[in-house]
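Dear colleague,

Following up on Tuesday's group meeting, I ran the structure prediction for the two-component complex that the binding team flagged. I've pasted the input sequences exactly as they went in, so you can double-check that nothing got truncated or mislabelled along the way. The structure tokens for the whole assembly follow below. Feel free to forward this to whoever is handling the docking comparison.

Inputs:
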Amino acid sequence: MRTAEALRMAVEALRVNRLRSMLTMLGVIIGVLSVVILVAIGTGAKNAVEKEIAGLGSNIILVVPGQVGLGAAPTQSRLDLSDVAYVRRVVGDPSKVTVAVNSGEPVRVGRVEVFATLTGTDENMPHVFDRPLRRGRYLTGTDVDTRRRVVILGSEVAAKLFGDVDPIGRQVTIAGVRFRVIGVYETVGSTFGVARDQEVHLPVTTAQRLIGLPRINGIAVGASGPDEIEPLRQRVVAALAARYPDETFSAVTQTQLLGTIGTVLGMLTGVLAAIAGISLLVGGVGVSNIMLVSVRERTKEIGLRKALGARGRDILGQFLIEAVLLTTIGGVIGILTGVGGALLIQAVSPVPASITWWSIVLAFGVSAAVGVFFGVAPARRAARLDPVVALRTD
Amino acid sequence: MSHDERAGRRDDERAEASAEPGAAGAPAFEAIGLTRSYRLDGGVQVDALRGADLRIGQGEFAAIVGPSGSGKSTLMHLLGCLDRPTSGTLLVNGVDVATLDDARLADLRNRTIGFVFQSFHLLPRTSALDNVALPLVYRGAPRAVRRERARAALEAVGLGHRLTHRPSQMSGGEQQRVAIARALVGDPRVLLADEPTGNLDSRNGEEVMGLLERLNEGGVAVVLVTHDADVAARARRQIRVRDGRIERDT
């Protein structure tokens, strides 16, 4: 028998039991839909994080005390400003090295109070990181050297404290100390869940006095090009290790971060896809079930077809095509609704969703495979029916 | 594969089939010591056929008669290769069916034998034309050829005006004529009819019998199973089956 003919017969059989076919497909549709949507969300999250990392600036090396890695406990920092000067000498270009001291503090203007991340840094920060200003100016060397009480506000902090009023030149209070606003950053979004628009930058020296500790949290080094990153990283780590033989230091590059984050989020996406895949499997069981019912119902028809010259494999083909048609139509509907759903999520929710072609191809392939896998048992049962027994059934 | 190739191959196969040993001049059916036993669910063994010797020549018109439970339907199912004998030998057109696998047996049913059943066994929700064309589907005939031959077969049984009607839109007599057209469409050498008039009134039954007679005159062997004496009387030969044995052959 020709495939076109078998296909026509299968379409006809599905049309006759329209409601039943639809309900059976629904299981496959939900499975495929969830695969497409969950993979889109996983991929979207990965893309968003990668964009955030890239958005920090280019060719950055972050030097922090202790081990950096999954599950590593944060280490008490032993670095101070003299180490920054040391790293500057190692790197050679002082402007390519900057520093960070972090602390969470409430920032107040009159009665309005906002909890912000205070980051003490220096005049070289804009040479290392991408951090465009909306208004005002960056920190200067003098700000740092003279421990000036000046701040640059993240866009969100500025909006919360001052609303539409221009904050430049105005006063904010942090831990009882008054600071003058000298700049406002552009909105940059968040990195690793750190809302960078909620940051307040101030001179590192001022920050250390405010916190009451001479420590710093990390040093950031900007390499001059992608090829410079690795040699520079090794040089900095080696230099720090020579200076502090008992301590470990880590210098992470963006590439490493991207790799680590990518692995984690890739795993997450895989897990999500696997969970969705299980629902697709359940849909397949539904197909198998309904095909068995169909074979039983059409026992007489199968007997007749055999009497008229259908071979076992003609009958097998007919029922297999029917099952595969059921799952692939379900698969296509699932893909369409899944893509639609992912676009909708992207449009109306903060969850990033990114549709990937491989998830679509995979979903379609798997749904077709589910049809074959779960259609084989009922189809074989049909193919093996004895024509006499089948014709006798009433 | 193109339509032409298919059609060409079909003709080749047919030429090959007629060249098989014993095909020329062999009787349509030759049964030697045919038995068929089966077990009921309770484990009771039923010997439906207890050794039948039978020879039906090409172009014959024979009726298998007997009371219900006599084994006449079992005999017909065996002749039609819908069932395999428990023991004994059956030659169809000189070919021992025991040597054929499932696919070849299906091919034999498709090309050599036409079936007519008491309850018609037409596919519901399917037009008369498509019902009749069904045997050709399993031969791989192209759609255009199938439709043309199905139309001709329906015209031959006087239903040229009912091509697109579905079984539910036709009378019993018309449905049985569609079934006969379906049995004919593949040019079989034998037509096996199981109580073909059993579900019909006398007028429609008469019409169907007339049709079978005409077909027989055209050279097709007709073997019908019936317990209706009037129907059986129309056949030139009567094979009486009783308790799984052929009691009389006249």
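The domain at 3-249 of chain B is CATH 3.40.50.300 (Rossmann fold).

Cheers,
M.
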